[in-house]
Amino acid sequence: MTTSATTGPGVTARTREGWAAAAGITAVGTAVVLGEIAATLISPSVSPMTAVGGAVIDAVPPGVKDWAVSLFGTADKVALLAGMALVIAGLAALAGVVEARRRFAGVALIAVFGLAGVAAVLGRAAATAYAPAVPVAVALAAVLLLRWLLRRLQDWAPENWAQETDAARAPDARAPVADQGEWAGPNRPDLPAGHEPAGHEPSEHGYAGNGQPMPPARPAAALPPAAAPPARRRFVQALGGTAVAGALGGVLAGTLRGSAAAVTEGRSKLVLPAAKSPAPAIPAGASIALDGLEPLVTPNADFYRIDTALRVPLIDPDKWALKVTGLVDREIELDFAALLAKPMTERHVTIACVSNQVGGDLIGNARWLGWPVRELLAMAGPKPGADMVLSRSTDGWTAGTPLEALTDSRDAMLAVGMNGEPLPLEHGFPARLIVPGLYGYVSATKWVTELKVTRFADDKGYWTPRGWSERGPIKISSRIDVPRNGARPGAGTVVFGGTAWAQPTGVGAVDLRIDGGPWRSVELAPGISKDTWYQWKLGAVLGPGQHEVQVRATDLNGVVQVEGHAPVAPDGATGYHTIRVDVKS
Ligand SMILES: Nc1nc2c(c(=O)[nH]1)N[C@H]1C(S)=C(S)[C@@H](COP(=O)(O)O)O[C@H]1N2
Ligand SMILES: [Mo]
Protein backbone atom coordinates (compact mmCIF):
# COMPACT_ATOMS: atom_id res chain seq x y z
CA MET A 1 0.00 0.00 0.00
CA THR A 2 1.15 3.48 -0.75
CA THR A 3 -1.62 5.74 0.50
CA SER A 4 -4.93 4.90 2.02
CA ALA A 5 -6.64 6.98 -0.64
CA THR A 6 -6.03 4.21 -3.07
CA THR A 7 -6.94 1.36 -0.81
CA GLY A 8 -10.21 2.43 0.63
CA PRO A 9 -13.20 4.61 -0.08
CA GLY A 10 -11.19 7.72 0.54
CA VAL A 11 -13.46 8.96 3.30
CA THR A 12 -12.69 9.51 6.92
CA ALA A 13 -15.08 8.42 9.63
CA ARG A 14 -16.07 12.03 10.05
CA THR A 15 -16.82 12.51 6.38
CA ARG A 16 -18.89 9.37 6.43
CA GLU A 17 -20.91 10.75 9.31
CA GLY A 18 -21.38 13.96 7.41
CA TRP A 19 -22.84 12.04 4.50
CA ALA A 20 -24.99 10.01 6.86
CA ALA A 21 -26.34 13.27 8.27
CA ALA A 22 -27.02 14.51 4.75
CA ALA A 23 -28.82 11.24 4.03
CA GLY A 24 -30.94 11.77 7.16
CA ILE A 25 -31.88 15.33 6.19
CA THR A 26 -32.63 14.35 2.59
CA ALA A 27 -34.69 11.31 3.57
CA VAL A 28 -36.72 13.05 6.25
CA GLY A 29 -37.08 16.27 4.27
CA THR A 30 -38.40 14.43 1.23
CA ALA A 31 -40.74 12.35 3.38
CA VAL A 32 -42.11 15.47 5.07
CA VAL A 33 -42.74 17.08 1.69
CA LEU A 34 -44.54 13.94 0.51
CA GLY A 35 -46.61 14.14 3.70
CA GLU A 36 -47.58 17.74 2.96
CA ILE A 37 -48.73 16.65 -0.51
CA ALA A 38 -50.72 13.74 0.92
CA ALA A 39 -52.25 15.99 3.56
CA THR A 40 -53.32 18.53 0.96
CA LEU A 41 -55.22 15.75 -0.78
CA ILE A 42 -56.83 14.00 2.17
CA SER A 43 -56.86 16.50 5.02
CA PRO A 44 -56.40 20.01 3.66
CA SER A 45 -56.50 21.95 6.89
CA VAL A 46 -54.27 19.61 8.95
CA SER A 47 -50.88 18.42 7.73
CA PRO A 48 -48.18 16.97 10.01
CA MET A 49 -46.24 20.26 9.86
CA THR A 50 -49.21 22.48 10.64
CA ALA A 51 -50.42 20.08 13.33
CA VAL A 52 -47.07 20.14 15.11
CA GLY A 53 -46.85 23.90 14.71
CA GLY A 54 -50.39 24.25 16.04
CA ALA A 55 -49.52 22.07 19.01
CA VAL A 56 -46.52 24.31 19.71
CA ILE A 57 -48.77 27.37 19.57
CA ASP A 58 -51.33 25.78 21.87
CA ALA A 59 -48.68 24.72 24.36
CA VAL A 60 -47.55 28.26 25.05
CA PRO A 61 -47.28 28.64 28.80
CA PRO A 62 -50.18 30.77 30.01
CA GLY A 63 -49.35 34.21 31.29
CA VAL A 64 -46.02 34.44 29.52
CA LYS A 65 -46.69 37.81 28.03
CA ASP A 66 -44.12 38.05 25.29
CA TRP A 67 -44.91 34.60 24.07
CA ALA A 68 -48.59 35.25 24.21
CA VAL A 69 -48.31 38.46 22.26
CA SER A 70 -46.36 36.85 19.49
CA LEU A 71 -48.50 33.75 19.51
CA PHE A 72 -51.69 35.69 19.22
CA GLY A 73 -50.35 35.55 15.76
CA THR A 74 -48.51 38.74 14.91
CA ALA A 75 -46.62 37.54 11.88
CA ASP A 76 -44.56 34.92 13.67
CA LYS A 77 -45.96 32.04 11.67
CA VAL A 78 -43.15 32.07 9.17
CA ALA A 79 -40.61 32.17 11.99
CA LEU A 80 -42.30 29.23 13.69
CA LEU A 81 -42.30 27.16 10.50
CA ALA A 82 -38.67 28.04 9.82
CA GLY A 83 -37.75 27.11 13.40
CA MET A 84 -39.57 23.81 13.03
CA ALA A 85 -37.74 23.12 9.78
CA LEU A 86 -34.41 23.73 11.55
CA VAL A 87 -35.30 21.45 14.47
CA ILE A 88 -36.51 18.75 12.09
CA ALA A 89 -33.34 19.06 10.00
CA GLY A 90 -31.24 18.69 13.16
CA LEU A 91 -33.14 15.62 14.30
CA ALA A 92 -33.02 14.17 10.79
CA ALA A 93 -29.24 14.62 10.64
CA LEU A 94 -28.98 12.91 14.01
CA ALA A 95 -31.20 10.06 12.80
CA GLY A 96 -28.90 9.60 9.80
CA VAL A 97 -25.75 9.59 11.91
CA VAL A 98 -26.99 7.18 14.58
CA GLU A 99 -28.59 4.90 12.01
CA ALA A 100 -25.29 4.71 10.13
CA ARG A 101 -23.57 3.74 13.37
CA ARG A 102 -26.16 1.38 14.67
CA ARG A 103 -28.93 -0.14 12.69
CA PHE A 104 -32.45 0.87 13.85
CA ALA A 105 -31.18 3.62 16.18
CA GLY A 106 -32.17 6.27 13.62
CA VAL A 107 -35.28 4.31 12.68
CA ALA A 108 -36.33 4.39 16.34
CA LEU A 109 -35.77 8.15 16.49
CA ILE A 110 -37.88 8.70 13.37
CA ALA A 111 -40.60 6.42 14.77
CA VAL A 112 -40.76 8.48 17.98
CA PHE A 113 -41.23 11.68 16.01
CA GLY A 114 -43.73 9.99 13.75
CA LEU A 115 -45.76 9.14 16.83
CA ALA A 116 -45.44 12.71 18.08
CA GLY A 117 -46.80 13.76 14.69
CA VAL A 118 -49.77 11.42 15.10
CA ALA A 119 -50.46 12.84 18.56
CA ALA A 120 -50.28 16.39 17.21
CA VAL A 121 -52.68 15.58 14.37
CA LEU A 122 -55.11 13.86 16.74
CA GLY A 123 -55.07 17.03 18.83
CA ARG A 124 -56.27 19.18 15.91
CA ALA A 125 -59.98 19.76 15.79
CA ALA A 126 -60.02 20.13 12.03
CA ALA A 127 -58.30 16.81 11.36
CA THR A 128 -60.17 14.40 9.11
CA ALA A 129 -60.36 10.68 9.94
CA TYR A 130 -57.43 9.91 7.65
CA ALA A 131 -55.21 12.73 8.86
CA PRO A 132 -53.33 10.64 11.48
CA ALA A 133 -52.27 8.23 8.70
CA VAL A 134 -50.17 10.98 7.16
CA PRO A 135 -47.47 11.24 9.87
CA VAL A 136 -47.32 7.43 9.95
CA ALA A 137 -46.71 7.40 6.19
CA VAL A 138 -44.15 10.20 6.55
CA ALA A 139 -42.20 8.24 9.17
CA LEU A 140 -42.36 5.10 7.04
CA ALA A 141 -41.19 6.92 3.93
CA ALA A 142 -38.39 8.57 5.91
CA VAL A 143 -37.22 5.21 7.25
CA LEU A 144 -37.29 3.52 3.83
CA LEU A 145 -35.48 6.41 2.16
CA LEU A 146 -32.90 6.60 4.92
CA ARG A 147 -32.21 2.85 4.86
CA TRP A 148 -31.88 2.99 1.10
CA LEU A 149 -29.49 5.92 1.16
CA LEU A 150 -27.42 4.40 3.96
CA ARG A 151 -27.11 1.15 2.03
CA ARG A 152 -25.65 3.19 -0.79
CA LEU A 153 -23.36 4.93 1.66
CA GLN A 154 -22.31 1.60 3.09
CA ASP A 155 -21.42 0.41 -0.40
CA TRP A 156 -19.21 3.37 -0.91
CA ALA A 157 -17.80 3.86 2.55
CA PRO A 158 -18.25 0.74 4.65
CA GLU A 159 -18.86 1.36 8.28
CA ASN A 160 -15.64 -0.14 9.66
CA TRP A 161 -13.43 1.05 6.94
CA ALA A 162 -12.21 4.23 8.51
CA GLN A 163 -11.24 2.73 11.85
CA GLU A 164 -9.67 -0.32 10.26
CA THR A 165 -7.59 1.64 7.83
CA ASP A 166 -6.71 4.25 10.40
CA ALA A 167 -5.29 1.45 12.52
CA ALA A 168 -3.59 -0.19 9.58
CA ARG A 169 -2.13 2.96 8.14
CA ALA A 170 1.57 3.61 8.44
CA PRO A 171 2.26 7.03 9.97
CA ASP A 172 4.00 8.27 6.85
CA ALA A 173 1.07 7.32 4.70
CA ARG A 174 -1.38 9.55 6.51
CA ALA A 175 -0.26 12.99 5.56
CA PRO A 176 -1.24 12.96 1.89
CA VAL A 177 -4.74 11.77 2.74
CA ALA A 178 -5.27 14.54 5.20
CA ASP A 179 -4.12 17.08 2.67
CA GLN A 180 -6.48 15.76 0.08
CA GLY A 181 -9.35 16.31 2.42
CA GLU A 182 -12.80 14.92 1.98
CA TRP A 183 -12.43 14.11 -1.68
CA ALA A 184 -9.14 12.40 -1.14
CA GLY A 185 -9.74 10.15 -4.08
CA PRO A 186 -12.29 7.81 -5.45
CA ASN A 187 -12.39 4.36 -4.06
CA ARG A 188 -11.53 2.20 -7.02
CA PRO A 189 -9.05 4.16 -9.07
CA ASP A 190 -7.75 1.09 -10.79
CA LEU A 191 -10.96 0.44 -12.62
CA PRO A 192 -12.84 2.77 -14.91
CA ALA A 193 -16.55 2.96 -14.46
CA GLY A 194 -18.45 -0.03 -15.70
CA HIS A 195 -15.48 -2.39 -15.64
CA GLU A 196 -15.64 -3.77 -12.17
CA PRO A 197 -15.00 -7.46 -11.87
CA ALA A 198 -18.08 -9.31 -10.67
CA GLY A 199 -16.50 -10.30 -7.40
CA HIS A 200 -15.92 -6.70 -6.53
CA GLU A 201 -19.30 -5.42 -7.65
CA PRO A 202 -19.85 -2.87 -4.93
CA SER A 203 -23.43 -1.98 -5.33
CA GLU A 204 -25.29 -4.35 -3.04
CA HIS A 205 -22.66 -5.74 -0.69
CA GLY A 206 -19.80 -3.35 -0.41
CA TYR A 207 -16.17 -4.19 -0.17
CA ALA A 208 -15.93 -4.63 3.54
CA GLY A 209 -19.32 -6.28 3.71
CA ASN A 210 -18.34 -9.18 1.54
CA GLY A 211 -14.94 -9.49 3.07
CA GLN A 212 -13.08 -8.88 -0.16
CA PRO A 213 -9.59 -7.56 0.21
CA MET A 214 -9.11 -4.09 -1.12
CA PRO A 215 -7.77 -3.98 -4.67
CA PRO A 216 -4.23 -2.95 -5.42
CA ALA A 217 -3.43 0.69 -5.40
CA ARG A 218 -2.33 3.48 -7.62
CA PRO A 219 -1.30 6.96 -6.40
CA ALA A 220 -4.17 9.40 -6.26
CA ALA A 221 -2.37 11.92 -8.41
CA ALA A 222 -2.34 9.54 -11.32
CA LEU A 223 -6.11 9.16 -11.42
CA PRO A 224 -8.05 10.07 -14.52
CA PRO A 225 -10.28 12.87 -13.30
CA ALA A 226 -13.50 11.59 -14.86
CA ALA A 227 -13.26 8.14 -13.35
CA ALA A 228 -15.77 8.64 -10.56
CA PRO A 229 -16.20 5.18 -9.11
CA PRO A 230 -19.63 3.58 -9.21
CA ALA A 231 -20.23 3.18 -5.49
CA ARG A 232 -19.55 6.77 -4.65
CA ARG A 233 -21.39 7.93 -7.66
CA ARG A 234 -24.37 5.78 -6.83
CA PHE A 235 -24.56 7.16 -3.35
CA VAL A 236 -24.25 10.74 -4.52
CA GLN A 237 -26.80 10.11 -7.25
CA ALA A 238 -29.23 8.52 -4.83
CA LEU A 239 -28.80 11.41 -2.41
CA GLY A 240 -29.06 14.05 -5.12
CA GLY A 241 -31.97 12.29 -6.79
CA THR A 242 -33.88 12.12 -3.53
CA ALA A 243 -33.15 15.76 -2.82
CA VAL A 244 -34.36 16.76 -6.29
CA ALA A 245 -37.49 14.65 -5.85
CA GLY A 246 -38.06 16.36 -2.51
CA ALA A 247 -37.63 19.79 -4.08
CA LEU A 248 -39.99 18.97 -6.95
CA GLY A 249 -42.43 17.60 -4.39
CA GLY A 250 -42.18 20.90 -2.56
CA VAL A 251 -43.14 22.73 -5.74
CA LEU A 252 -46.03 20.31 -6.27
CA ALA A 253 -47.19 20.77 -2.68
CA GLY A 254 -47.20 24.50 -3.25
CA THR A 255 -49.16 24.10 -6.48
CA LEU A 256 -51.69 21.84 -4.80
CA ARG A 257 -52.08 24.40 -2.07
CA GLY A 258 -53.05 26.56 -5.01
CA SER A 259 -56.46 25.01 -4.40
CA ALA A 260 -56.32 28.23 -2.45
CA ALA A 261 -56.61 29.62 -5.93
CA ALA A 262 -59.96 27.89 -6.41
CA VAL A 263 -61.33 29.41 -3.22
CA THR A 264 -59.79 32.76 -4.12
CA GLU A 265 -61.49 32.62 -7.49
CA GLY A 266 -64.80 31.59 -5.95
CA ARG A 267 -64.44 34.52 -3.58
CA SER A 268 -63.74 37.01 -6.35
CA LYS A 269 -66.82 35.89 -8.28
CA LEU A 270 -69.07 36.23 -5.26
CA VAL A 271 -71.57 39.04 -5.43
CA LEU A 272 -72.59 40.31 -2.02
CA PRO A 273 -76.19 41.32 -1.45
CA ALA A 274 -77.01 44.96 -0.87
CA ALA A 275 -77.55 45.89 2.75
CA LYS A 276 -81.14 46.22 3.83
CA SER A 277 -79.86 48.48 6.58
CA PRO A 278 -76.95 50.36 4.96
CA ALA A 279 -74.09 51.89 6.91
CA PRO A 280 -74.81 55.47 7.96
CA ALA A 281 -72.90 57.92 5.82
CA ILE A 282 -69.52 58.96 7.18
CA PRO A 283 -70.07 62.43 8.67
CA ALA A 284 -68.29 65.31 7.01
CA GLY A 285 -65.12 66.05 8.92
CA ALA A 286 -64.83 62.57 10.45
CA SER A 287 -61.63 62.08 8.55
CA ILE A 288 -58.89 64.57 9.43
CA ALA A 289 -56.41 65.34 6.68
CA LEU A 290 -53.04 65.05 8.37
CA ASP A 291 -50.00 63.29 7.00
CA GLY A 292 -49.15 60.19 9.02
CA LEU A 293 -52.60 59.81 10.55
CA GLU A 294 -53.95 56.32 10.08
CA PRO A 295 -56.91 56.33 7.65
CA LEU A 296 -60.33 56.44 9.28
CA VAL A 297 -61.35 53.28 7.44
CA THR A 298 -58.55 50.72 7.29
CA PRO A 299 -58.02 49.21 3.82
CA ASN A 300 -58.40 45.42 3.90
CA ALA A 301 -54.82 44.90 2.82
CA ASP A 302 -53.56 46.93 5.81
CA PHE A 303 -55.91 45.45 8.37
CA TYR A 304 -54.09 43.76 11.25
CA ARG A 305 -54.32 39.99 11.28
CA ILE A 306 -54.34 37.86 14.40
CA ASP A 307 -55.10 34.17 14.65
CA THR A 308 -53.62 30.83 15.60
CA ALA A 309 -54.04 29.44 12.08
CA LEU A 310 -50.68 28.41 10.63
CA ARG A 311 -52.46 28.10 7.33
CA VAL A 312 -55.42 30.18 6.40
CA PRO A 313 -58.40 27.81 6.38
CA LEU A 314 -59.71 27.47 2.84
CA ILE A 315 -63.46 27.14 2.84
CA ASP A 316 -65.54 26.62 -0.26
CA PRO A 317 -68.63 28.74 0.47
CA ASP A 318 -70.79 26.12 -1.24
CA LYS A 319 -69.70 23.66 1.45
CA TRP A 320 -69.85 26.09 4.36
CA ALA A 321 -72.60 25.77 6.92
CA LEU A 322 -73.19 27.26 10.35
CA LYS A 323 -74.82 25.26 13.10
CA VAL A 324 -76.49 26.78 16.12
CA THR A 325 -76.41 24.18 18.90
CA GLY A 326 -76.52 23.83 22.67
CA LEU A 327 -79.07 25.40 24.97
CA VAL A 328 -81.57 26.30 22.28
CA ASP A 329 -85.18 25.44 21.55
CA ARG A 330 -84.37 24.67 17.91
CA GLU A 331 -80.99 23.75 16.48
CA ILE A 332 -80.35 25.61 13.26
CA GLU A 333 -78.21 24.87 10.27
CA LEU A 334 -77.64 27.63 7.79
CA ASP A 335 -75.79 27.38 4.48
CA PHE A 336 -74.10 30.25 2.71
CA ALA A 337 -76.89 30.86 0.19
CA ALA A 338 -79.40 31.01 3.03
CA LEU A 339 -77.17 33.44 4.92
CA LEU A 340 -76.82 35.73 1.90
CA ALA A 341 -80.60 35.73 1.51
CA LYS A 342 -81.07 37.22 5.01
CA PRO A 343 -81.68 40.96 5.46
CA MET A 344 -78.17 42.33 5.77
CA THR A 345 -76.90 45.15 7.93
CA GLU A 346 -73.78 47.16 7.12
CA ARG A 347 -71.87 49.05 9.83
CA HIS A 348 -68.47 50.52 10.50
CA VAL A 349 -67.00 48.77 13.53
CA THR A 350 -63.51 49.17 14.99
CA ILE A 351 -62.17 45.85 16.25
CA ALA A 352 -59.12 45.49 18.47
CA CYS A 353 -56.89 42.77 19.84
CA VAL A 354 -56.46 42.31 23.58
CA SER A 355 -52.74 42.09 22.83
CA ASN A 356 -52.70 45.64 21.50
CA GLN A 357 -50.21 47.63 23.57
CA VAL A 358 -50.99 51.21 24.49
CA GLY A 359 -50.13 53.07 21.29
CA GLY A 360 -50.08 49.81 19.32
CA ASP A 361 -51.50 48.96 15.93
CA LEU A 362 -53.47 45.75 16.54
CA ILE A 363 -56.67 47.66 15.84
CA GLY A 364 -58.54 48.48 12.67
CA ASN A 365 -61.78 49.97 11.45
CA ALA A 366 -63.82 48.44 8.62
CA ARG A 367 -67.30 48.52 7.13
CA TRP A 368 -68.74 45.09 7.83
CA LEU A 369 -71.73 43.57 6.04
CA GLY A 370 -73.59 40.82 7.84
CA TRP A 371 -76.70 39.39 9.36
CA PRO A 372 -77.43 40.49 12.94
CA VAL A 373 -76.59 37.59 15.27
CA ARG A 374 -79.53 38.70 17.38
CA GLU A 375 -81.91 37.54 14.63
CA LEU A 376 -80.17 34.20 14.22
CA LEU A 377 -80.28 33.55 17.97
CA ALA A 378 -83.91 34.59 18.13
CA MET A 379 -84.69 31.90 15.56
CA ALA A 380 -82.89 29.30 17.68
CA GLY A 381 -84.42 30.46 20.97
CA PRO A 382 -81.80 30.39 23.75
CA LYS A 383 -82.99 28.49 26.83
CA PRO A 384 -83.11 30.14 30.26
CA GLY A 385 -79.78 29.88 32.08
CA ALA A 386 -77.67 30.32 28.94
CA ASP A 387 -75.25 33.24 29.29
CA MET A 388 -72.54 32.56 26.71
CA VAL A 389 -72.13 31.66 23.08
CA LEU A 390 -69.10 29.56 22.24
CA SER A 391 -68.35 30.26 18.60
CA ARG A 392 -66.13 27.76 16.86
CA SER A 393 -63.99 28.14 13.78
CA THR A 394 -63.47 25.40 11.23
CA ASP A 395 -59.96 24.95 12.65
CA GLY A 396 -61.29 24.35 16.15
CA TRP A 397 -60.46 27.78 17.62
CA THR A 398 -63.19 29.10 19.92
CA ALA A 399 -64.34 32.35 21.51
CA GLY A 400 -66.73 32.70 24.44
CA THR A 401 -69.01 35.73 24.01
CA PRO A 402 -71.57 36.91 26.55
CA LEU A 403 -75.00 36.03 25.15
CA GLU A 404 -76.09 39.53 26.04
CA ALA A 405 -73.57 41.17 23.73
CA LEU A 406 -75.01 39.13 20.87
CA THR A 407 -78.64 39.87 21.64
CA ASP A 408 -78.69 43.48 22.90
CA SER A 409 -79.12 46.46 20.63
CA ARG A 410 -75.51 46.59 19.46
CA ASP A 411 -74.71 45.56 15.89
CA ALA A 412 -73.20 42.14 16.49
CA MET A 413 -73.14 40.37 13.16
CA LEU A 414 -72.37 37.26 11.27
CA ALA A 415 -70.29 39.14 8.75
CA VAL A 416 -69.67 38.19 5.13
CA GLY A 417 -68.36 41.48 3.78
CA MET A 418 -65.49 43.80 4.68
CA ASN A 419 -65.24 47.24 3.11
CA GLY A 420 -67.50 46.27 0.22
CA GLU A 421 -65.74 42.98 -0.58
CA PRO A 422 -66.32 39.41 0.53
CA LEU A 423 -64.19 38.78 3.63
CA PRO A 424 -60.54 38.30 2.66
CA LEU A 425 -59.43 34.69 3.25
CA GLU A 426 -57.25 35.69 6.18
CA HIS A 427 -60.06 37.70 7.76
CA GLY A 428 -62.47 34.78 7.93
CA PHE A 429 -63.91 33.99 4.51
CA PRO A 430 -66.71 33.13 4.06
CA ALA A 431 -68.14 34.22 7.43
CA ARG A 432 -67.03 35.54 10.81
CA LEU A 433 -68.39 37.22 13.88
CA ILE A 434 -68.00 40.93 14.56
CA VAL A 435 -69.14 42.23 17.95
CA PRO A 436 -68.76 45.94 18.77
CA GLY A 437 -67.07 46.61 22.08
CA LEU A 438 -65.37 43.26 22.69
CA TYR A 439 -61.77 42.27 22.04
CA GLY A 440 -61.37 39.85 19.16
CA TYR A 441 -60.34 36.89 21.29
CA VAL A 442 -63.78 36.73 22.94
CA SER A 443 -65.88 37.64 19.93
CA ALA A 444 -64.46 37.91 16.43
CA THR A 445 -64.33 34.23 15.37
CA LYS A 446 -63.18 33.92 11.77
CA TRP A 447 -64.12 30.98 9.52
CA VAL A 448 -66.97 30.42 11.97
CA THR A 449 -68.99 27.21 11.62
CA GLU A 450 -70.74 26.75 14.94
CA LEU A 451 -72.43 28.80 17.62
CA LYS A 452 -73.01 26.79 20.76
CA VAL A 453 -75.34 28.47 23.20
CA THR A 454 -74.00 27.56 26.62
CA ARG A 455 -72.93 28.91 30.01
CA PHE A 456 -69.64 30.44 31.17
CA ALA A 457 -69.76 27.82 33.93
CA ASP A 458 -69.68 25.01 31.37
CA ASP A 459 -67.49 26.14 28.49
CA LYS A 460 -64.33 28.16 27.91
CA GLY A 461 -63.05 29.94 24.82
CA TYR A 462 -59.61 29.09 23.45
CA TRP A 463 -57.63 31.76 25.30
CA THR A 464 -59.32 31.58 28.68
CA PRO A 465 -57.44 28.54 30.03
CA ARG A 466 -54.27 30.11 28.63
CA GLY A 467 -54.13 33.02 30.98
CA TRP A 468 -56.59 35.45 29.43
CA SER A 469 -59.73 36.75 31.03
CA GLU A 470 -63.08 35.10 30.44
CA ARG A 471 -64.59 38.49 29.56
CA GLY A 472 -62.93 40.98 27.25
CA PRO A 473 -64.66 44.35 26.89
CA ILE A 474 -62.45 46.75 24.94
CA LYS A 475 -60.85 49.34 27.21
CA ILE A 476 -61.14 53.05 26.45
CA SER A 477 -57.94 54.11 24.76
CA SER A 478 -56.28 56.68 22.55
CA ARG A 479 -53.19 56.99 20.46
CA ILE A 480 -50.90 59.68 19.07
CA ASP A 481 -50.07 58.94 15.42
CA VAL A 482 -48.50 62.28 14.50
CA PRO A 483 -45.76 63.17 15.06
CA ARG A 484 -44.04 59.83 15.62
CA ASN A 485 -42.31 59.16 18.90
CA GLY A 486 -38.79 60.60 18.66
CA ALA A 487 -39.66 62.99 15.82
CA ARG A 488 -37.74 66.27 15.42
CA PRO A 489 -40.30 68.86 14.32
CA GLY A 490 -39.34 72.43 13.57
CA ALA A 491 -39.98 75.11 16.20
CA GLY A 492 -43.36 76.83 16.22
CA THR A 493 -46.73 75.12 15.98
CA VAL A 494 -46.53 71.34 16.08
CA VAL A 495 -49.70 69.57 14.91
CA PHE A 496 -50.56 66.45 16.90
CA GLY A 497 -53.09 63.95 15.65
CA GLY A 498 -54.35 60.48 16.37
CA THR A 499 -57.29 58.29 17.22
CA ALA A 500 -59.37 57.41 20.26
CA TRP A 501 -61.96 54.72 20.87
CA ALA A 502 -64.51 53.68 23.48
CA GLN A 503 -66.74 51.10 21.79
CA PRO A 504 -69.68 50.67 22.22
CA THR A 505 -70.22 53.86 24.26
CA GLY A 506 -68.47 56.35 22.02
CA VAL A 507 -65.79 58.95 22.67
CA GLY A 508 -66.84 62.20 24.36
CA ALA A 509 -63.53 64.02 24.65
CA VAL A 510 -59.81 63.68 24.02
CA ASP A 511 -57.15 65.66 25.87
CA LEU A 512 -53.46 66.20 25.33
CA ARG A 513 -50.92 66.95 28.04
CA ILE A 514 -47.53 68.42 27.28
CA ASP A 515 -44.65 68.08 29.73
CA GLY A 516 -47.01 67.17 32.58
CA GLY A 517 -48.89 70.48 32.26
CA PRO A 518 -52.66 70.96 32.19
CA TRP A 519 -54.81 68.77 29.97
CA ARG A 520 -55.87 70.62 26.82
CA SER A 521 -58.87 69.48 24.86
CA VAL A 522 -58.18 68.62 21.26
CA GLU A 523 -60.32 69.11 18.20
CA LEU A 524 -62.33 65.86 18.17
CA ALA A 525 -63.75 64.84 14.80
CA PRO A 526 -67.23 63.34 14.72
CA GLY A 527 -67.07 59.56 14.86
CA ILE A 528 -68.68 57.41 12.20
CA SER A 529 -70.50 55.74 15.05
CA LYS A 530 -69.98 54.94 18.72
CA ASP A 531 -68.55 51.60 17.64
CA THR A 532 -65.68 53.13 15.72
CA TRP A 533 -62.58 55.07 16.55
CA TYR A 534 -62.55 58.85 16.29
CA GLN A 535 -59.82 61.06 14.89
CA TRP A 536 -58.49 64.13 16.68
CA LYS A 537 -55.88 66.83 16.25
CA LEU A 538 -54.35 69.72 18.11
CA GLY A 539 -51.79 72.32 17.16
CA ALA A 540 -49.48 73.32 20.01
CA VAL A 541 -46.72 75.89 20.06
CA LEU A 542 -43.59 74.22 21.41
CA GLY A 543 -40.23 75.74 22.25
CA PRO A 544 -36.98 74.08 21.21
CA GLY A 545 -35.87 70.94 23.05
CA GLN A 546 -37.39 67.74 24.39
CA HIS A 547 -41.09 67.47 25.15
CA GLU A 548 -43.20 64.66 26.52
CA VAL A 549 -46.72 64.42 25.10
CA GLN A 550 -49.56 62.28 26.44
CA VAL A 551 -53.10 61.61 25.31
CA ARG A 552 -56.23 60.38 27.08
CA ALA A 553 -59.82 59.75 26.05
CA THR A 554 -63.09 60.12 27.94
CA ASP A 555 -66.18 58.23 26.84
CA LEU A 556 -69.66 59.67 26.38
CA ASN A 557 -70.58 58.53 29.91
CA GLY A 558 -67.70 60.58 31.31
CA VAL A 559 -65.51 57.59 32.10
CA VAL A 560 -61.86 58.56 31.69
CA GLN A 561 -59.24 56.25 30.22
CA VAL A 562 -57.25 54.48 32.98
CA GLU A 563 -53.89 56.15 33.60
CA GLY A 564 -52.11 53.37 35.47
CA HIS A 565 -50.13 50.95 33.36
CA ALA A 566 -51.48 47.43 32.94
CA PRO A 567 -49.95 44.81 30.67
CA VAL A 568 -52.02 43.27 27.87
CA ALA A 569 -52.63 40.04 29.83
CA PRO A 570 -55.10 39.08 31.14
CA ASP A 571 -57.67 41.55 29.79
CA GLY A 572 -56.05 44.39 27.87
CA ALA A 573 -53.45 47.13 28.40
CA THR A 574 -54.07 50.44 30.14
CA GLY A 575 -52.03 53.61 30.47
CA TYR A 576 -51.62 56.80 28.50
CA HIS A 577 -49.85 56.73 25.19
CA THR A 578 -46.77 58.87 25.70
CA ILE A 579 -44.37 60.12 23.07
CA ARG A 580 -41.30 62.35 23.09
CA VAL A 581 -40.46 64.92 20.48
CA ASP A 582 -37.32 66.97 20.14
CA VAL A 583 -38.21 70.36 18.71
CA LYS A 584 -35.42 71.83 16.61
CA SER A 585 -34.20 75.24 17.58
N1 LIG B 1 -60.63 31.24 13.89
C1 LIG B 1 -60.04 32.21 14.59
N2 LIG B 1 -60.67 33.39 14.72
C2 LIG B 1 -60.09 34.39 15.41
C3 LIG B 1 -58.83 34.21 16.02
C4 LIG B 1 -58.19 32.97 15.87
O1 LIG B 1 -57.10 32.72 16.38
N3 LIG B 1 -58.83 31.98 15.14
N4 LIG B 1 -58.25 35.25 16.72
C5 LIG B 1 -59.13 36.29 17.21
C6 LIG B 1 -58.40 37.46 17.65
S1 LIG B 1 -57.42 37.27 19.04
C7 LIG B 1 -58.55 38.68 17.06
S2 LIG B 1 -57.87 40.06 17.75
C8 LIG B 1 -59.32 38.83 15.81
C9 LIG B 1 -58.52 39.52 14.74
O2 LIG B 1 -59.25 39.59 13.55
P1 LIG B 1 -58.50 40.01 12.22
O3 LIG B 1 -57.36 39.04 12.02
O4 LIG B 1 -59.51 39.96 11.12
O5 LIG B 1 -57.98 41.40 12.43
O6 LIG B 1 -59.72 37.57 15.29
C10 LIG B 1 -60.22 36.69 16.24
N5 LIG B 1 -60.75 35.56 15.53
MO1 LIG C 1 -56.73 39.25 19.65
TrEMBL record:
Residues 310-463 form the Oxidoreductase molybdopterin-binding domain. The chain crosses the membrane at residues 20-42, 78-97, 104-123, 129-150. InterPro entries: Ig_E-set, OxRdtase_Mopterin-bd_dom, OxRdtase_Mopterin-bd_sf. One of its GO terms (molecular function) is heme binding. The keyword Transmembrane helix applies. Residues 164-227 are annotated as: Disordered. GO terms for biological process: sulfur compound metabolic process. Keywords: Membrane, Transmembrane, Transmembrane helix. Pfam families: Oxidored_molyb. PANTHER family: SULFITE OXIDASE, MITOCHONDRIAL, SULFITE REDUCTASE. This is Oxidoreductase. It comes from Arthrobacter oryzae.
